[in-house]
Amino acid sequence: MINFKKSILAVCITSLVLAGCAAPGGQGGQSGSVNSDTALRCAAFGVGGALLGVMVGGKGAAVKGAAVGLAACAVVEIASRQTKSSATVDEQYRSSNRNQLPQTAKIDAYTMSVTPNGVAKAGDAIRVQSSIRAISGVRDPVTEVKEQLVVYAPSGEEFKRGEKKVNDSTGSGEYENTFTLRLPDGAPQGMYKFKTQIFLNGKPASVHESSVQVAALDLPSPHMAVAAR
Q: Which residues does UniProt assign to the signal peptide (predicted)?
């Protein structure tokens, strides 16, 4: 009976939060900025997630629930472009490898960086930029190069993810891919981990990780180290 009541309450909380978020305009005739409305809806997500966490797992799950709720308001924008053609990349590879291409498709180079190089604040744009060079093999060409980003909250829980196919055509190429993450007001403070991974022709390949400190909006921005590897 207790579990049944918890389930009913959880459904009610979820419905209430979603109802509030589904009506961004509010009642007719009321005024208010879009930013204020968004902040209120994101706060509702956070509170609703925390309440659901309490219902399901007690106090320990409240923080995790709030982070999951706020993640719904986090935005990830993705943009990519080709920086070197297939012919150029193949020629450069051959010149360093006895005029031969590899037997199978491979990721020849992959770098990732995160900005700002210091403390980020909720609402600031956090950019994860990658440079990717893929080489077609003698036996199989490059058909798909996809990059995936997974962001982990300070609690260690997955907070947000995004992915994008960066190549438009088959063959070798060099690409620049950028994920731009905007955290909502009220997002948990602390160290966020950013993990990127390349999938080449559907198979997992290179991985990079980096961490960024996120501070409250009203705090100054002291120079703090960004741990990366």
A: 1-22
Q: How far apart are CA 148 and CA 162, in angstroms?
A: 6
- Coil, helix or strand at residue 197: strand
Helix (H, G, I), strand (E, B) or coil at 38: helix
Please indicate, yes or no, if residue 228 is contained in any of the structural domains: no
> Does 179 lie in the same domain as 80?
yes
Q: Is the pTM of this model over 0.85?
A: no
Q: Which secondary-structure segment (H or E) carries 111?
A: strand 106-115
Same domain assignment for residues 17 and 110? no
Distance of CA 142 to the CA centre of its chain: 25
pLDDT tens digits for 22-80? 434 344 444 333 333 333 444 444 443 433 344 444 445 444 544 555 677 788 899 99
Residue span of the structural domain in which 168 resides: 75-215
Q: How far apart are CA 113 and CA 128, in angstroms?
A: 6
| C-alpha to C-alpha distance for 202 and 145, rounded to whole angstroms | 8
- Which residue type does 117 have? N
The model's pLDDT over 97-143, given as tens digits with 9 standing for 90+, comes to 999 999 999 999 999 999 987 788 877 899 999 999 999 999 999 99
Distance between start and end Cα atoms, the chain: 50
Phi, psi angles (nearest 5°) of residue 67:
-65, -40
